[in-house]
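Q&A log
Question type: sequence-to-structure
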Amino acid sequence: MKATRLTLLAALTSAVLAGCASGVKLDDKPAPVENRSTGGTSANSGANNAGTSQSQVASVDLTKNAPAAISSVIYFDYDSYVVKDEFRPTIEAQAKSLSANKAKKVSIEGHTDERGGREYNLALGQKRAEAVVKSLELLGVPQSQVEAVSFGKERPAVQGSDEAAWAKNRRAEFNAK
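Response status: OK
Response body:
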């Protein structure tokens, strides 16, 4: 009886250790956020409107009709979870919307294209979702309002096996909870 228990314990231990060595090669570093802002001001910012005292630009209220006005998808490069600068306005608008409504909660769903194994894609999708969450947190959104979830390659936005389809599937989406 004791030998059976030891054999069972050894088999269970080896099964657990085999499950931990899945081969997923994403590191546990914090998700990088690309920042290319210059921080400076333009030297000729007022040169063209020297005689006018009022701006011709109308102000925009981002909290009014927010769900329809704010994009809810962030796209990523192949095998990457770096949030690109071109999606900064989307993340800033989402952050303003969440900050204006503290009761609002969203899940950030990370997705990948069909290439790669299931476990790798789930991990990459999670990293993409966490990168967007980190960007929102840097803009003042509390962790209690956002959740990172990964679907890997399980929910493609577009069917197909070409670069155009893959590019649309490498994404993180905002979804209200």
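Response note: The radius of gyration is 22 Å.
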